[in-house]
């Protein structure tokens, strides 16, 4: 792995304090935006002179539901003027919603670049293995990018995108949406204000939840590392990113352990078949029954290829598509549990556990400082200062925020992105590609450590 292509010191110098998440000095659009967004309010915001025009490449649940939907709520800020999507009904759905002319409706991403540039930016929300191609082509064509995480499938590909973005002086926002939630912004503010003193150590848990695991990381698009990415990247680069952002200092070493325990052929119950629809003898009692989850409960349907939702279309998809497969008979190989230990500059330590086999979701974080500690569960933050004896509880659920996924983070990110593009000021964003590179390398090196039996790996930018 060639890590010398990107030098942390040079990037930090070029970005100033913004690279580690601190406010920019002086009165600028960056500092004003970051201050406002703690409450995610549109009140008294300066209106944009004109909406930012984007082309959506990949109109699935992220491109359509998570990000483009911002333009339906705030059409004076975001206008979708083109789409590339191979599934007809998805392409038609977004085209109808935004009145996209037929000549700007494309089947695959390559077709977008067969015509002259006609928008300000691209939303690249394709599967992981289709990030690199459109990102490189988009930068060459002069577009700014909203790039869904993971940046790409290898450190070398990530480097290629970074170098081209810097050559073209383009804005690339990586979709680390947790940074844009009231909850994590408040935690960052508390830590930056030294309310618990200097950070000593962090414990962070990501409980994925069993059904989420079975849907997305067994049956779904992210179950196979070669087709997508290892779990520490495809799911948990949010978490390596949050750790890096909160701590605000370089990571230096990692050791990681984990494996796939449950969702393997060897664990298949007697009487199970390759599909839940193939007369499986235990389907009615299996907690992962596709018939129960998708047909009866109507859960997780956003990833199924369903133009119309009814019993017939769902069952047809379950008989023929990937989501009808038995969870013990898939081609998945990503881990269902992984523990990583990171050491940061100044001896700060962080432990991170990704646990898929839970009945609950919602990240749990504990930060231990020289003067106190923070306990959080994505709903409330309990802040205790041992020196003063003061304890405060902050309720994120009562914070003013966008009504969007990831606790308001999806639309919080788009809010920042349209302003960054409109004012050509990357400092408005906290998750530029420059700021996201190190947390990606943390994931790549953690996976290397895991495959080497926990060998300590250096995270040397």
From TrEMBL:
An example molecular function term from Gene Ontology annotations: nucleotide binding
InterPro entries referenced in this protein's UniProt entry, alphabetically: Gfo/Idh/MocA-like_OxRdtase_N, Gfo/Idh/MocA_Oxidoreductases, GFO_IDH_MocA-like_dom, NAD(P)-bd_dom_sf, TAT_signal
Ranges of residues in domain Gfo/Idh/MocA-like oxidoreductase N-terminal: 53-175
Protein name: Gfo/Idh/MocA family oxidoreductase
Coiled coil region boundaries: none
Gene3D superfamilies: Dihydrodipicolinate Reductase, domain 2 (3.30.360.10), NAD(P)-binding Rossmann-like Domain (3.40.50.720)
Pfam families assigned: GFO_IDH_MocA, GFO_IDH_MocA_C3
Domain (GFO/IDH/MocA-like oxidoreductase) ranges: 184-374
Superkingdom of origin: Bacteria
């Amino acid at each position: 792995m060639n890590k010398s292509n990107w030098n942390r010191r040079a990037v930090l110098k070029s970005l100033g304090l913004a690279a580690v998440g601190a406010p920019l000095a002086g009165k600028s659009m960056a500092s004003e935006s970051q201050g406002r967004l703690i409450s995610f309010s549109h009140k008294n915001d300066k209106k944009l002179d004109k909406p930012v025009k984007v082309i959506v490449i990949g109109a699935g649940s992220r491109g359509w539901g998570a990000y483009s939907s911002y333009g339906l709520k705030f059409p004076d800020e975001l206008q979708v003027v083109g789409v590339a999507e191979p599934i007809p009904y998805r392409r038609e759905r977004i085209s109808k919603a935004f009145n996209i002319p037929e000549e700007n409706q494309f089947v695959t991403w390559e077709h977008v670049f067969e015509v002259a540039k006609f928008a300000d930016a691209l939303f690249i929300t394709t599967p992981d293995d289709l990030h690199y191609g459109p990102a490189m082509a988009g930068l060459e064509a002069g577009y700014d990018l909203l790039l869904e995480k993971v940046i790409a499938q290898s450190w070398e590909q990530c480097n290629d995108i970074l170098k081209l973005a810097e050559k073209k002086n383009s804005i690339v926002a990586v979709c680390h949406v947790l940074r844009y939630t009231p909850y994590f912004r408040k935690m960052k503010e508390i830590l930056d204000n030294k309310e618990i003193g200097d950070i000593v150590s962090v414990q962070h848990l990501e409980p994925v939840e069993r059904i989420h695991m079975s849907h997305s990381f067994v049956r779904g698009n992210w179950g196979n590392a070669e087709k997508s990415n290892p779990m520490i990247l495809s799911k948990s680069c949010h978490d390596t990113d949050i750790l890096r952002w909160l701590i605000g200092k370089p990571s230096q070493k990692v050791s990681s352990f984990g494996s796939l325990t449950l969702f393997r052929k060897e664990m298949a119950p007697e009487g199970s078949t390759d599909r839940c629809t193939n007369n499986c003898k235990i389907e009615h009692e299996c907690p992962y029954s596709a018939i129960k989850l998708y047909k009866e409960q109507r859960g997780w349907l956003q990833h199924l290829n369903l133009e119309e939702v009814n019993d017939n279309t769902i069952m047809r998809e379950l008989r023929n598509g990937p989501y009808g497969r038995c969870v013990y008979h898939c081609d998945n190989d990503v881990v269902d549990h992984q523990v990583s230990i990171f050491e940061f500059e100044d001896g700060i330590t962080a432990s991170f556990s990704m646990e898929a086999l839970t009945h609950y979701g919602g990240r749990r974080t504990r930060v231990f400082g020289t003067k106190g500690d923070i306990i959080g569960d994505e709903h409330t933050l309990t802040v205790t200062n041992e020196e003063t004896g003061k304890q405060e509880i902050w309720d994120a659920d009562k914070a003013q925020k966008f009504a969007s996924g990831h606790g308001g983070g999806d639309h919080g990110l788009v809010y920042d992105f349209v302003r960054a593009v409109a004012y050509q000021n990357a400092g408005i964003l906290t998750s530029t590609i420059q700021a996201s590179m190190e947390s990606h390398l943390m994931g790549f090196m953690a996976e290397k450590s895991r495959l080497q039996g926990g060998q300590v790996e250096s995270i040397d930018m």
